Amino acid sequence: MSRSLKKGPFVDTALLEKLESLNRANEKKVIKTWSRRSTVIPEMIGHTMAVHNGKKFIPVYVTENMVGHKLGEFSPTRLFKGHSGKLVADKKAKPE
Q: pTM for this one?
């Protein structure tokens, strides 16, 4: 279920304050955040957010296409190493 339109998008208050202070000073610094649940708003465009994935901070440069999505969508929490298809195929091809 989506959030009510009258409430507007959710953005963590600490993150919003940091963003507003950078926009007032016209600065471009990396903003560290643990708030993966915050929605990307138009004020974030052009900033780099360091989003925590549970282990480290992943830098995410916010573009216009990201507005409306959550910050957590852009910093994956799991590392896919791939399937062992080639190893299995090599063992079947070489009988021992």
A: 0.79
Residue type, 89: A
Q: Determine contact, residues 69/51, Cβ cutoff 8 Å.
A: no
Q: Are 50 and 57 in contact (CB under 8 A)?
A: yes
Q: Pseudo-torsion of CA 12, 17, 18, 21, nearest 10°?
A: 160
Strands (E), 15-94: 30-33, 48-52, 57-61
Give residue 3's pLDDT. 86
Report the phi/psi class of residue 20: left, alpha or beta, with left for phi > 0 and alpha for psi in -120 to 50.
alpha
pLDDT, residue 50, reads 97
Dihedral sign of CA atoms 13, 14, 20, 24 in order? positive
Q: What is the pLDDT of residue 73?
A: 95
Continuous H helices in 1-96: 13-25, 85-93
